[in-house]
Each structure stands twice: as C-alpha cells, then as structure tokens.
C-alpha cells in the first residue's frame, strides 16, 4: 500500500490514552489530524485533552510507528483503514466503542459485504464440529461472508469449511497481523489472506494478551449482521461475543445440544434469553 502522512498520525492517535473511535470522531470535528500533531500544548488543552493525552500527542513513538508503516508497505494487500475511511465498515462504525482503525490483509472489499459471525467452544464435540462445518458452508452458499476469530476449535472449523467451499471468510485477530496466534494456525491464516481477509485493531507486532480477546469479540460481532453460537459453556468467550451482539442490536442464534452437555449450557442459556434456536441454516438466513 502507499503510505501517506495521515497514516502516521492515525497510528500516533491510536496510542493516545482513552481515545477510541467515538472520541476521535468528535475530536476531528473540531480539528484535523495534522493540526492535532503540529499544535502546541495550549492548543491541545483548548480541545479538552488531559495532560497524559497531550504528552502522548506531543511525543509519539515514531520508531514504533515507522515499524508498523514499514510492515504495511511491505506487501500490496495490506491496508490501514481509519474510522473515517470509505472502506471502514458502516456496521462497525455504529457500535458503542468502534475501533479507531483496522489493519487489514487480503481482500479489503469483504469488510463491507454482509457477514455472519460464527463463534463457539475451543474444544467442540464431534456434534459441534459437524454443525459448524455444515452451517458455515451453507451460509456461504446463501451469499454471506463468514466472520470468526481464528481461535482453536469452532472458529477454525468454520474458517476451514468456508475455504473448502471456495467461499469468503474474515478472521479477526486478538494480536497483530504480523504475529498470528495461535501459532498452529499460521497456515490457515495464510489461506485466509489469499481467499479472504485478516483484520486486527492492534499494531502488527502486538503479542497475545488475555484482555485483547474480548476486544476482538466486539469487532467480530460489530462487523456482522448476526452471531451464531455453536457450542459454548456458561463462562465462555462466546457468550461475551453474544453479549456484544445484543448490545449492538445484532441477531443472536444458538445451536441447541444435549441438556446434560456442559458445552451446550451457554447456548441453552442464550436461547432462554431470547436467542433464536437454530436447527437448520434457513433459521439464520430467513
């Protein structure tokens, strides 16, 4: 990609404490990125920024920013998509805490196509895997992009099923795109790069940290029209995705399981809370 002056300012803004997508949009109604990063401390104060924010804007870590820009420039299919860009998906822009920017590798056009998120257990049963596979494949045939989180278990089953069906899939990462996690999915990530898209809000070399994964989940649901939960225990990350989906006004679908299977307890709980019970793919597409 071509790197421009604005990109480095976006990356610098990303590092400013307590400024996410919503706050940035408000700020940029009052000023421009260039003005922000070339202004004085007084000017920044007049915009209502606190001391820590002023310091971050006056002293960006240009070395770290340069390494991100170099990573972006190294391949043609790498993109930086700030919240004001035309490629930034409208569905995601309208959630309560949208990311300030996205890094994308692969087919950037997929971001704005209708998507369904599929999430679930990291240790699915044979039943869970089988239905993850068949539902993902059928959603693709219905013309939808399947979005998930590249995690072990249901996520990877869904991505693989879509690739096998020659469909389109998006993987949203909780790490930087130069640092695929889990490592065992390096090859899968490469296939998704070629036939879909990898997305992250974290700078390219960001390591895996527990607090990053719930943040990733809000993007998975925020990009999508609805979220399908395949198998989930009561305290699983999939229920975090479902909760974000409900807060974001998205549809939530859940695959029922045996009542004595703890891996289905999360799905049953969601169904009791009003999620739509899924017995076939048409329950979702209708």
In terms of topology, how is this protein built?
Blueprint: H1 5-14, H2 21-30, H3 33-38, H4 41-46, H5 51-58, H6 62-73, E1 78-82, H7 90-93, E2 101-106, E3 115-119, H8 126-141, E4 145-148, H9 154-164, E5 169-172, H10 186-195, E6 197-200, H11 212-223, E7 226-229, H12 237-247, E8 251-254, H13 265-272, E9 276-277, H14 282-285
Parallel strand pairs: 3-4, 3-7, 4-5, 5-6, 7-8, 8-9
Antiparallel strand pairs: 1-2, 2-6
Helix pairs in contact: 1-6, 8-9, 9-10, 11-12
- Secondary structural class: alpha/beta
Radius of gyration: 20 Å
Mean pLDDT: 96
The number of helical elements comes to: 14
Count every beta strand, where a strand is a DSSP E run of 2 or more residues.
9
Low-confidence sequence ranges: none
* Strand coverage percent: 5-15%
Helix-residue proportion: 40-55%
Largest sheet: number of strands, sense, barrel closure: 9 strands, mixed
Strand order of the largest sheet: 1-2-6-5-4-3-7-8-9
Question: End-to-end span in angstroms?
Answer: 39 Å
